[in-house]
Amino acid sequence: MERYQNFKAAIYCPVSNVIDITDLEKFGKQFAWIEKHVKVGKVYLETYRHGTTIEREQMERVIAFFRERGIETAGGITTDGPDDGEGGFNPLCYTSQTTRMKMREVIEFTASLFDEIILDDFYFTNCRCASCIESKGNRSWSRFRLDLMREISEDIIVNPAKKINPNVKMVIKYPNWYEHYQDAGYNLEDQPKIFDALYTGTETRNPMYTQQHLPKYLSYFNMRYMENVAPGRNGGGWYDPYECSYNLTSYAEQAYLTLFAKAKEAMMFSLGSLLNSEFSLCIPINGQIFDDMDAYLGKLGTPVGTACYLPYHSHGEDYLHNYVGMLGIPLEPYPDYPKDANSIFLTESAAMDADILNKITDSLRNGADVVVTSGFVKEATKLGFQQELCNVTYTDRKAIVDSFAYSNDGGICFGGREESAKAIVIPQLEFKTNDTWEIIAGLGEDNSFPLLLKTQYSKGRLYILTIPDDFGDLYHLPRKILLPIRQIFFKNSPIHFDSFAKVGLFLYDNDCFALHSFQPWYDEVKITLKNGYTAIKDLINETTIKADKENDTMVVRLRLAPGINRVYQLTRE
Fold first, then answer.
1. Residue (of 559, 566, 494) closest to 537 by Cα position
2. 532: domain range?
3. Sign (positive/negative) of CA torsion 207, 257, 182, 96?
4. Is 3 inside any structural domain?
5. Among 107, 169, 511, 521, whose Cα sits 20 to 30 Å from the Cα of 92?
6. pTM of the entire structure?
7. Helix and strand totals (H; E) in the chain
8. Is the domain of 519 the same as that of 430?
9. Mean pLDDT of the 211-221 span
10. Contact at 8 Å (CB) between 116 and 110?
């Protein structure tokens, strides 16, 4: 059967859905409707969830059904228990011997059926029972849970599975909440060494009406982070339709960004939901997305962007990277310091590395540009930031600003003034005149407050970007203020990018790029071509757009439509 060339379309089937497949003829008609739209290459069939385990005979019938249609089958397990009446999720207590015995039993049963098993992203613990409190001892809850889940991964999950089936491939799916993994026992440092592969949660749903922080860029950013955690072993991206019915473009954008990040598989959760009338439109939407993107994904190289450093088990300025990504700034995250990168972006979480200042100074000596946030300055003050790098201080004072000035001469004078649509609250940073330069400022009464500072250090440049108290207020910065902010992230990019906020720019190492507007209106973007490029080729309709010469630069102006992908390659005509 025909499949997609650049990725595999997969569906996750919770155990209740699999148990409900009692009439194979009836289900065959339902699944035929899915296959009419989506070239399904793989299904993950769950054996356990919420305390329910499937019977072997039933699972074997369903496995046979899919295999007869040439569809790969893998196992799935959700490590949670029945509803306890308290609300929230119900992950398991892993200090309980009963839990350990049950999980070993489920793992061994599943390994006897499948050569690949994925753990849904309930493989964490938030238990504070008497047993866990005693086992924790003097450790922090994070340290205790990291140690506990490393032990469980080896002794209860992976080793028992491989004893039953030496060929089984064990996969751990990591959730979208990467800043808080360690607090619930997701051990991103050790678990990928224990498991054969990992999988990435790319669910972003409704970016505002949700208890998570989910700017759309996270669907791309988390995929790229996991790619760099376990190069070559990230199985794919997993998204769902929940909280997306308010705007089906919001659902589609999860798939778009998952695939722009070069996922090997696009996992649709879940079989039962996608067959439900509430979410049935998601199937034809996915089918069209997959057909459209498969036509050009193979022409895109490896994603590139400004290197970010998220140390293992770190947090701080939670999910800020995704708000910055929504400004049209491509980012490439790493769990280890990107010492060879020529452009580096560090948020507060990077300051949890006790040696971070030495790493920064090495980068600057090698000619890199390093951008740090106001939150990083605050946290790194404890490490000697002012003594080692530059004398900028994070104060307890705030400023409310709705107008901004920018400098065209490196900080000597301001050359223009812009107003934002709303006032935003920013922390006040203090700097030393003529030692550090104010490139952008928020304006007060006979006063100004740094939004972007710059200082030179050896061969490199150190920039400090002030972050509003509400990260989403970055979207309200005027376009002329966003332009110099973007430029400091684009040191060796083949283009400069000028646009409104809430637009995604995805760069690739073969001089290809994609654009996606998250705004609900049409608007124009300006792309300045560098490195001798004079035109861009549209990889969707195979047309070429020649650049116009403006003030000795080659410029292309494009009108972006809401929610529509534009994909190009730089050329020389």
1. 566
2. 498-571
3. positive
4. no
5. 169
6. 0.97
7. 17, 28
8. no
9. 92
10. no
